[in-house]
Amino acid sequence: MPWLYLIVAIAGEVIGTTALKASDGFTRAGPAVIVVIGYAIAFYFLALVLRSIPLGVTYAIWSGVGVAAVTLIGWLVYGQRLDGAAMLGIGLIVAGVVVLNVWSGATPD
């Protein structure tokens, strides 16, 4: 169950961050409400995850997957450009998350 909670926490954070861009500095009410709800969901489920998965591992996965997802959404939705260095950096973040989950003994089974 903690892995499902982590997925929900990541989704909440990605939705909240994406809406943060759309809120235009909290001047647009609809996206601003989505920001608050998204982050509330993210932090609630992140707290549940921390009951079972170590803090460092949880945060590395949450932030790494979140960064990659938000970057992809920025590219697809907002037309933000990614150069080779940006793509390499995101690839390294994703590789780090894979290494943590596949080869590290720090994550629970």
Give the percentage of residues in beta strands: under 5%
Class by alpha and beta content: mainly alpha
Q: Secondary-structure element order, as H and E?
A: HHHH
The number of strands is 0
Task: Enumerate how many helices there are, as a single number.
Answer: 4
Q: What overall form do the CA principal axes indicate?
A: flat
Q: Characterize the biggest β-sheet.
A: none
Based on CA atoms alone, the radius of gyration comes out at 15 Å
Gap between N and C termini, in Å?
11 Å
The percent range for helix content is: over 70%
Descriptive key words:
78% helix, 109 residues, 4 helices
Write the layout of secondary structure elements.
Blueprint: H1 2-22, H2 29-49, H3 55-78, H4 84-102
Helix pairs in contact: 1-2, 1-3, 3-4
Structure, described:
The protein is mainly α and 109 residues long. It is 78% helix and 0% strand. It has four helices and no strands. Helix 3 (55-78) packs antiparallel against helix 4. The longest helix is centred in the middle third of the chain and has 24 residues, at 55-78. It starts with a helix and ends in a 7-residue tail after the last helix.
